[in-house]
Amino acid sequence: MRMKNTDYVICMTSRGGRTWRYLKDKRGWKQKVPEGQVHRMTPEQVLNHLLPAVAQIKPVSVKVVYRVPNPMPRAKWLKRLEESGQAKASL
Asked: Which ranges constitute the DSSP H helices of 30-86?
């Protein structure tokens, strides 16, 4: 099994239950904040956010979750849906 950074999500949860997610895609790292906003980040910024939590300086928990990659890209999925005769309105 080939492991890639894009296959995992790093979740950092505070005592109050707020969760920040860090994930990597083709364009680089991004952070999803509890309010729903997405911020692009450099690898150094990701480490600056995670290292204090891992060193237990901040009272948060860190969990790494395996993200199952999408076996079929959305464009290919939509094309198959159209070919099968199902309407786009059902999306």
From this structure: 43-54, 74-83
